[in-house]
Amino acid sequence: MAFIANITCLFFSFWLLFFACFAGVLMGVVSGGCGGGRELVAVAEDWACTFITTKLWCSNAYGELVLPQLRRSLQNLKMEYVDLFLIHWPLSLKPGRYEFPVRKVEISPMDFGSVWAAMEDCQRLGLTKSIGVSNFSCKKLADILALAKIPPAVNQVEFNPLWNQKKLREYCKANGVLLIGYSPLGASGTLWGSSRVLENEVLKEIAKAKGKTVAQICLKWAFEEGVGVIVKSFNVERMKQNLEILDWSLSEEERKRIGDLPQSRGCTGESFVSENGTFKTIEEFWDGEV
Ligand code: A2P
């Protein structure tokens, strides 16, 4: 196990709302490991309040490798099942290699048919309550929906006031897929993130006027938009602060100002793009959704 860290993980949405009602859900992230996935280990006062998600890493994104990876992840987690199992990225990598940044020459298109069928088997076997995808564009989600016997429950993607996923959200809603947002604060401190969300002048102005922090404005906005978000903090005070968003509201004008902010991706997927590779441009990788 590479490292264990505490984060708060909030799932704000209509059917996941109840997670947010329990303060202080402390979760640990266990990354790496033989499964090559990312496992969330929940440590909470009440186990029933936790929601465990794990992901299929790209080097296991082959029909015959899906079930073995989930079994290894469950072994690592010491659990019999997880709540949600997601395809991490819509691509495959050379089997057996677990590194990031990835070797771009080892990227290949994923065979959605065999991988999704194996994901469905995982759910049928009771090893996960639900299955879904992550970082899928409308087009790639449509490809999965076209062949799915069990449709994806979730598409987990970047989501914050500077990348509000308007088109994808509408598509997900129309197709019964719940959009869950990662990087709701812009993921500062990560390879792909920056402080551009927390330092945004409009968000700062709204926060000042309301006597809230920019982080709380972002989370409240996501909550009011009906999007589930995964917000991370290593700091207990900030974890508490991030939960204090339930007893106040944004005004219509504030929501409009946030909705009008210029949009661009923070997580561009650049790590998977190369001139002679499977995805030659960022536009191609996201099917024009940039
Ligand atoms: P820290 O762990 O020191 O609190 P995201 O959820 O978008 O991935 O962003 C995570 C980043 O945001 C982390 O660097 C985290 O730092 C920081 N963060 C989390 N909550 C807050 C907050 N309430 N105010 C400011 N920064 C925060």
Automatic annotation (TrEMBL):
PROSITE patterns: ALDOKETO_REDUCTASE_2, ALDOKETO_REDUCTASE_3. Keywords: NADP, Signal. The keyword Transmembrane does not apply. It comes from Gossypium darwinii (Darwin's cotton). The keyword Signal applies. It comes from the Eukaryota. This is NADP-dependent oxidoreductase domain-containing protein. InterPro entries: AKR, Aldo/ket_reductase_CS, NAD(P)_OxRdtase_dom_sf, NADP_OxRdtase_dom. One of its GO terms (biological process) is alkaloid biosynthetic process. Belongs to the aldo/keto reductase family. GO terms for molecular function: oxidoreductase activity. Residues 1-28 form the signal peptide. SUPFAM superfamilies: NAD(P)-linked oxidoreductase. It holds the Pfam family Aldo_ket_red. Residues 51-258 form the NADP-dependent oxidoreductase domain.
